[in-house]
Predict the 3D structure of the following.
Amino acid sequence: MLRRLTQHERLQLLLAEYEPVVRQAFLDAVADIRSTVTLRVFIERLERRDIQGAIEALNLDREAYAKLENAVANAFEGGGNAMAEDLRLRDPEGYRVVFRFAVRNPEAEAWLREHSATMVTRIIEDQRESIRTALTEGLSRGDNPRTTALDVVGRVNRVTGRREGGLIGLSAPHMQTVENARQAMLSGDVDGMRHYLTLKTRDRRFDASIRKAIAEGRAIPAADVARVTGRLSDKYLKLRGDTIALHETFQALSGSRNLAFVQAIRSGKVDARDVTKTWRHTPQEHPRMQHVQMQGQTVRFDQPFIAPDGTPIMHPHAEGVPANHTLGCKCRCDYRIDHTAALIRRRLN
């Protein structure tokens, strides 16, 4: 007889299924944006010092991230369906009560609509402002417009035919780190190059040549700098993809699992008085101590968990919760229906 999966095991399977898809959807969106940029137009606008026009030429719009939105929507539906299956409801006579997650329910559609809009808007606005800063600084230094354009959109790999490196897709802090490393190497800034050698995400194959430049107190040729920073950008892009995939997949699964219970309660097939939820912390290398302290905290379904700092959290990764409680978090909550209490109340009634 097959053993029934625990809620934790089911969630792990869902993460394994959907997280890689969300990650690839983000990376595909970035690759598409890079490949569709008309480089000539971008360079011409930089030559005119038209930074806003240059940013518009990148076509950073919501449509570019449609595949990412679809991947998150699929994870959301998958989480809701899995929770509906796990409920295994029975009536007082012991017969199975059918309950299905309604992804077209107005509340579910509203969650997806608002979440997708917020997610993509945040990504695009972060990109535009960071690239605006990079372009402004480049123009103020008098950088060559073509070189600046390639630094932003990446350079074509002659083997794959795809653009690599570049700043599109990176978070603002990572974009600034790449730019700082680029300027340090081009100018021969010894302290800046030494700082680059402390980055965990660097490509260590370039370390020897950089150490030699430091020892000789000289700058690094522009072509070599492009290769070094290009690899750094690629590693940061992968890291950004990992971060977005983890965060968005957890939010979609957690949101739909919770909403599945909401739907079951509103349909009358489950009584909210019989449902509790328990915070489960997943051990990590660098855990949030607040979440460690919340391990085992149990509340009624309609009540929030309370973090040690006083933050109310309806469930892990809930919408609207501060980022310090969600980004990189792998916590979950287990739901429990007290079937005995439900049966006693029904018989008394």
Q: What stands out?
A: The chain has two domains: 7-270, 273-349. The beta strands are 155-156, 163-164, 275-280, 298-300, 305-306, 312-313, 332-337.
